[in-house]
């Protein structure tokens, strides 16, 4: 895990006052993303657009205002398509604000954080320090291995590799052999040293792929979404622990069947509007009900129901499934018509 450096009065600078709260939030997110990914301040354009969930910002504002900003029908949620358009405009205006304030500089492939290397360590520096820490760890383990035949194995050193010898308890302050043995480690003061959870690939917000075998239904859902995103011309996303967790919650906690999840994936990735807004499993779960409502508007109102929105007890399917089948039939008919044209 790496840490970013921020002055405690940075927000008083006129540049940050110009960009507003969303601009400050996006700038800080970009700073953290670049530091974690060691890009020396460079942020690809597609990453800059997804650092903040502007759709959730718009939804929160609309829901807070309630009926005052809806169509008068008493539906605080409003029209999801209108929300997404508003989110797109808000996202673009926030990015433009950062560029106009010269907090971000435009680059051919995205943006560069202004004066990033004046305040943050470069990727080369961080890699060098990590290599030195790893070397200290290896040296300590080797010393402990050589000493293991003469005395009991000492306690592990702190994660930053600050201890020099297995028995230097008084110097590193990690153990208290006269009373209670090991003492809980203090927070890591070095922003560039590896902590145990980082070595295990489980740090908060980590995008380290999860290779642990998991449930077939979760794997199918994640693979289907990744395949569909790639088929639409985007870079194939990495299936992470976060993806698997959200897919599992979508099935287990939200009560969606695997078929419903796969249908939602196929529908949104075939829709020209939603394919650009659903590019991850967390986003699919967050927007599932909006996708269901969008599919519902493409079909006649459902028959009276008793076990859930759009559920048909005669067929055992819901409205989302039936809307997807109709969409597939229309696509097949259009393809056949084009193939038969002279």
Report on this structure.
Residues 148-163, 332-342 have a biased composition (Low complexity). Residues 164-178 have a biased composition (Polar residues). The structure is a single chain. The chain has 342 residues and is mainly α. Among the domains are: 10-119, no CATH class; 216-335, no CATH class. It is 52% helix and 4% strand. The protein contains 14 helices and five strands. It has helices at 14-37, 45-50, 54-65, 80-100, 116-119, 123-147, 169-172, 196-199, 216-231, 241-252, 258-270, 281-286, 288-296, 319-340; strands at 42-44, 104-107, 110-113, 175-176, 181-182. The strands form two sheets. The protein has a three-stranded antiparallel β-sheet with strand order 1-3-2. The longest helix is centred in the middle third of the chain and has 25 residues, at 123-147. It starts with 13 loop residues before the first helix and ends with a helix.
């Amino acid at each position: 895990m790496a840490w970013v450096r921020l002055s405690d009065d940075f927000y008083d600078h006129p540049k940050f006052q110009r960009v507003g709260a969303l601009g400050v939030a996006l700038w800080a997110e970009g700073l953290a993303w670049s530091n974690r990914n060691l890009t020396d301040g460079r942020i690809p354009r597609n990453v800059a657009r997804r650092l903040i969930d502007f759709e959730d910002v718009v939804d929160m504002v609309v829901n807070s205002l309630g009926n005052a900003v809806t169509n008068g029908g008493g539906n605080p949620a409003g029209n999801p398509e209108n929300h997404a358009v508003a989110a797109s405009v808000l996202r673009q205006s926030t990015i433009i604000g950062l560029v106009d304030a010269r907090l971000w500089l435009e680059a051919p492939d995205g943006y560069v954080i202004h004066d990033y290397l004046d305040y943050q360590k470069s990727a080369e520096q961080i890699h060098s320090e990590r290599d030195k820490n790893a070397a200290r760890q290896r040296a300590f383990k080797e010393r402990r291995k050589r000493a293991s035949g003469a005395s009991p194995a000492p306690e592990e050193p702190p994660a930053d590799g600050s201890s020099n010898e297995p028995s230097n308890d008084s110097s590193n302050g990690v153990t208290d052999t006269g009373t209670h043995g090991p003492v809980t480690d203090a927070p890591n003061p070095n922003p560039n040293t590896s902590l145990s959870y980082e070595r295990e690939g489980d740090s908060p917000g980590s995008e380290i792929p999860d290779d642990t075998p998991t449930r077939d239904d979760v794997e199918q859902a994640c693979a289907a979404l990744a395949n569909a995103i790639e088929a639409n011309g985007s870079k194939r996303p990495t299936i992470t622990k976060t993806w698997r967790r959200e897919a599992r919650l979508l099935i287990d906690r939200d009560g969606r069947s695997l078929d419903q999840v796969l249908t939602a994936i196929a529908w949104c990735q075939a829709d020209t509007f939603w394919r650009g807004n659903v590019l991850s499993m967390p986003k699919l779960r967050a927007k599932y009900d909006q996708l269901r409502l969008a599919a519902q508007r493409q079909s006649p109102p459902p028959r009276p129901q008793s076990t859930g929105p759009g559920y048909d007890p005669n067929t055992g399917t819901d409205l989302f499934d039936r809307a997807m089948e109709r969409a597939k039939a229309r696509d097949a008919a259009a393809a056949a018509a084009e193939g038969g044209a002279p």
